[in-house]
Fold:
Amino acid sequence: MKQTVQVFNDLQYLSHFFGQLVATKMQNTPEDQTFSIAFSGGTTPKVVFEYIASHFNDDIDWEKIRVFWSDERCVAPESKESNFRMAKESLLDEVPIPAICFFRIMGEATDPATEAERYSEVVRRHVPALNNIPQFDLLMLGLGDDGHVASIFPGEIGLFSSAKLFEVAEHPQTKQKRITVTGKVINQARTVVFLATGEAKAAMVATVLEKKAGWQKLPAALVHPENGEALWLLDRYAASQLTNSAEL
Ligand code: 6PG
Structure:
C-alpha cells in the first residue's frame, strides 16, 4: 500500500487539491466506465464539497460519477445531522448531477440492520468488484478525535473486520445508530483519502501516522488499502504534531 501525506496552508488549497484529484482521476476513467466515490460526513468534507461546487462544476463529468456514502446517521434525510443532507446542500444541489447518479443510505429506515443489508446490495450492484468486493475508485474518510473512521468507533473496532460490506454502529456518547462501511470495503478502494484539519486532530493524526502509544486500538490505524493508496490531506494545524522523521 502506498501512503502519502499532503499538508496544506489552508482549507482552500486542500479543497482545490481534492477537486483536482477527482477531476484528474475521472479523466483517466475509460469512456465506458463510471467513477464511484464514497462521500464522508464531517466539517472538512463539507468545506471541500462547497469548494468543488463553486470551482469544479465544469471540470467533473457529473453523469459519469456515482456517489455513495461511507456512513450515515440513522436520521431522516431532512435532519441537520444527515450526511446526505450535508452533501446535498453543499454540493449535489449545486451541480448538474442526475438523481440516478447518487445513492443515499436511508437513515430513516425503521430497521438499520435491514438498511445496512439493502445498501450493501446497492453498492454490490453499482460498484465494480475486485475479488468479489466492491472497489471504490475513491473513498473519503474523516478522522474522529478518538480515531474513528466512517462510523467505526474504537469501542466497536471489531466492525472494521466484519464480513459484511456495511454494518450498524452506535455512537459511543449519543448512542445514535449509524450505518457504516466496513474495513472490507475501505481496504479494497483504489484510493482512500483522509481529510483532517484543525488543531484538535493533531494528536490523533500523529498517533496514527507515527504509530504512537495506543495506535493499534484505533480504527483509523486499520486503514490499509492493499490494492491502492492512502492519501492524507491535512492542514498545517492537523499536521502540527508530526515529526519530520516520520516514516509516512
Ligand atoms: C460522520 C463522519 C465521521 C467524520 C469524523 C470527522 O458521519 O460524522 O463520517 O467519521 O468524518 O467524525 O469529522 P470532522 O471532520 O467534523 O471532525
Notes: Residues 40-44, 70-71, 83, 142-144, 148-151 surround 6-phosphogluconic acid (CB under 6 Å). Residues 11-27 form the longest helix (17 residues).
